[in-house]
Design goal:
By secondary structure, the protein is mainly alpha-helical. The chain has helices at 3-28, 32-35, 54-66, 74-78, 83-95. The chain contains 5 helices and no strands.
C-alpha cells in the first residue's frame, strides 16, 4: 500500500473515531442530570458511571430495560436506548476516569 493511501485510511479511521466519541458524548449528556458530568455523580444516592467496566454498564442497562433490575427512573429511560446506544454509552463511561 502506498504511503498516501495509508495516510488517507488512517485519517478516515481517526475521523470516524472522533465522530463516534462525539456521538457518545452527546448521548451521555442525557445522563448528566442524575449521574453527573462525564458520569461522576455528586451525590451518594446516584452512582457514578465513570470508570465502571463496560460489560457491567451494558449488563445493568439491559437489566433495567428488560425489567430484571428495579429502580425508580432507569427502567423507563433504558427502554429508550438501542443495543448500539447502550454499548456506546458503556464504552464512553468506561473510558472516563473515576
Amino acid at each position: 500500500m502506498n504511503v498516501r493511501l495509508l495516510a488517507a485510511a488512517l485519517a478516515l479511521a481517526a475521523g470516524g473515531a472522533q465522530a463516534q466519541e462525539s456521538a457518545a458524548r452527546s448521548l451521555a449528556a442525557t445522563c448528566a442530570a442524575c449521574h453527573g458530568t462525564d458520569g461522576r455523580s455528586v451525590t451518594q444516592e446516584v452512582p457514578s458511571l465513570a470508570g465502571l467496566p463496560r460489560d457491567y454498564i451494558v449488563a445493568q442497562m439491559r437489566a433495567f430495560r428488560d425489567g430484571t433490575r428495579a429502580a425508580s427512573i432507569m427502567p423507563q429511560l433504558a427502554k429508550g436506548y438501542s443495543d448500539a446506544q447502550v454499548e456506546a454509552l458503556a464504552e464512553y463511561f468506561a473510558r472516563r476516569p473515576r
